[in-house]
Amino acid sequence: MKDKVVTPYQNRLSKKEQVAGMFNHIAHRYDFLNHFLSLGVDRLWRKRVVRKLALNQPSAMLDVATGTGDLAIAAARKIDNLNVQGIDIAMSMLERGKQKIVKSKLEHRVQIQLGDAENIGFDDNRFDCVTAAFGVRNFENVAKGLSEMHRVTKPGGQVIILEFSQPGKGVFAFFYRFYFRFLLPLMGKIVSGNNRAYTYLPESVEVFPDREAFTKLLGDAGFANCSFKPLTFGVACMYTGHKA
Ligand SMILES: C[S@@+](CC[C@H](N)C(=O)[O-])C[C@H]1O[C@@H](n2cnc3c(N)ncnc32)[C@H](O)[C@@H]1O
To answer: Which ligand 1 atom sits closest to the C-alpha of 34?
Structure first.
């Protein structure tokens, strides 16, 4: 099942084009739905990432698949003198993000622009840390994206990836699965007006590599000391690695 490719729509466009189209379509409701459907827990997950980043006091960060910029903004707020670049393939998500950056008065330290994770337009060894929150699952070619993230990380720098994951067994997992597969798609469809975005979400999580397998992919991309930390009963997972 894990080799199955799940795309947002059934049409002839590439996964990348479909993903960009879908996020462009739901951008106006994306932040609201994120916080509403996760009961605000998504903010706590990003805070965990930022706390870990802050330990190394980085000065240059790349946030891949930055979307509306939540992780980029949270990192710049918490870490003094941090400069953040963000890239994403969905222009409408970036437009929302740019408004938030201006509102947070962070334009001088956070810049986000169109850019593809699988062909990153920055020099080798440019960033102290490279992050991606809930983006990797959407890449067309995950190995290519990870290897690009490794290329632009400085030696000694780190990668942190936040991604949905599957909780194991037990009562929580049972109710969560029901919520994630049935209630969330229904509420997402009503609020976003997009039929597929919130059914694609659980489908894409189901075919995403499990924690051990994804940690191995990080290692295959060149990162060393790769590890993972399940969050909130394993609903999400934070992956870390270093560039030697
Ligand atoms: C679920 S959103 C996450 C946005 C943001 N990181 C957050 O935490 O809210 C996934 C984002 O990944 C972006 N994305 C998917 N494939 C990408 C790629 N190849 N390069 C850059 N961004 C990509 C989508 O456009 C979308 O904005």
So the answer is: 9
User: Is the minimum distance from the CB of 73 to ligand 1 under 6 angstroms?
Assistant: no
Report the alpha-carbon distance of residue 51 to residue 115 in Å, rounded: 26
Q: Is the distance from the beta carbon of residue 93 to the nearest atom of ligand 1 less than 6 Å?
A: yes
Ligand 1 center from residue 237 Cα (angstroms): 16
d(CA 156, CA 44): 26
pTM of the model: 0.96
Residue 213's closest CA among 239, 193, 176? 239
Ligand 1 pocket member 146 (CB < 6 A): no
Each of the 244 residues of the chain gets a pLDDT tens digit; together they read: 456 888 998 888 999 999 999 999 999 999 999 888 888 999 999 999 999 999 999 999 999 999 999 999 999 999 999 999 999 999 999 999 999 999 999 999 999 999 999 999 999 999 999 999 999 999 999 999 999 999 999 999 999 999 999 998 899 999 999 998 989 889 989 988 888 888 999 999 999 999 999 999 999 999 999 999 999 999 999 999 999 9
Query: Is 223 close to ligand 1, i.e. is its CB under 6 Å away?
Result: no
For residue 157, being part of any structural domain is answered with yes
Q: Is residue 153 in some structural domain? A: yes
**CATH label of the domain that carries residue 156:** 3.40.50.150
Place of tokens 């029901």: 178
- Binding site membership of 8 for ligand 1 (Cβ less than 6 Å): no
Helices and strands counted in the chain (H then E): 9, 7
Interstrand relation of 153-164 and 83-88 (parallel, antiparallel or unpaired): unpaired
Q: Tell how far the Cα of 119 is from the centroid of ligand 1, in angstroms.
A: 14
The residue range of the domain holding 138 is 15-27+40-165+210-242
